[in-house]
Design brief:
This protein has helices at about 5-20, 25-50, 85-95, 100-115, 120-140, 150, 155-180, 185-195, 230-240, 295-305, and strands at about 60-65, 70-80, 205, 220, 225-230, 250, 260, 265. By secondary structure, the protein is α+β, with helices and mostly antiparallel strands. The structure holds zinc ion (ZN) (3 copies).
Length: about 300
Amino acid sequence: MSILNNAIDSLVLGLEDFESSNPKRLISCTRNLFAGILLLFKHKLASISPAGSDEALIKQKVLPQVDTDGKVIWKGKGKKTVDVQEIRDRFTSLGIKTHWDRVEKINKFRNDIEHYHTDMSKDAIRQLITDCFIVVRDFITDEIKDDPKKLLGDEAWETLVSVSEVYEKEKEECVKFIDEVVFGSDALYEAIISYNCISCSSGLITVDDPKLPKEDITFVCKSCGQEYVYEQMVELSLGEYFSDDSSYLIDCPECDKKAYIYHEQRCAICEESAEHTCERCGEDIPAEELDGSGFCGWCTHMMNKDD
Ligand SMILES: [Zn+2]
Ligand SMILES: [Zn+2]
Ligand SMILES: [Zn+2]
């Protein structure tokens, strides 16, 4: 059976798992959907591998060989195929595009649910299916140059579309309330609307009363009811948002909370701004040296030496 057929089978199975009323099948739903996406990616790599290369582009090991004409060709060796990171590297270097942010999110969900047996609400899985829908739809259309509805079949396609619509609509409702709050920080706003609930992983988080003063606002997860006070949400969401690049998020020199967004020159909780230019040498104070003293690390060191 071809890789593409396997990919489609896996995706269809995953969607059937979702439709089942047995909650245990949600694990196999996430597993099948993620496997299906990886197989789609591998199909693409296999389909553009040079003829006679034994599908070199999907093999972890690729070795040079001399063919009968004395030409060097690269051939795939062994059974091991590329993993997620290797697919990503090859896509980047080949100019093949997909929504990696969504793919990574699906992968993280799958990993969490398999290894930590995280409780996941049906809303969280809806969100995963929405991400999956967008990845699969665009990849089949743009990279495989085929019709996703035709490939997946009417039933699976219908599930993807309807589940995504429900989720997108609820998400929109949630964001509408959040939009009424003035955060004064673009990063904080982005962090909050992309945050997933700590207890059920759902992205359906909203505010109960946006008219309240900011510090009195309670955030609430519409899927499981988990509540977050303002400060807690700010710290959790920023921590997640800046998890890949923590240098942008530092301990606030004023309130000590890890909520100071360096490039916005402002703390998302107490809203104070520290001095970012060194009073002694006039240079920008780097994130790791910003302590509210108004001096860079070097100047602080030099001044202490003078004492
Ligand atoms: Zn929740
Ligand atoms: Zn602060
Ligand atoms: Zn200085």
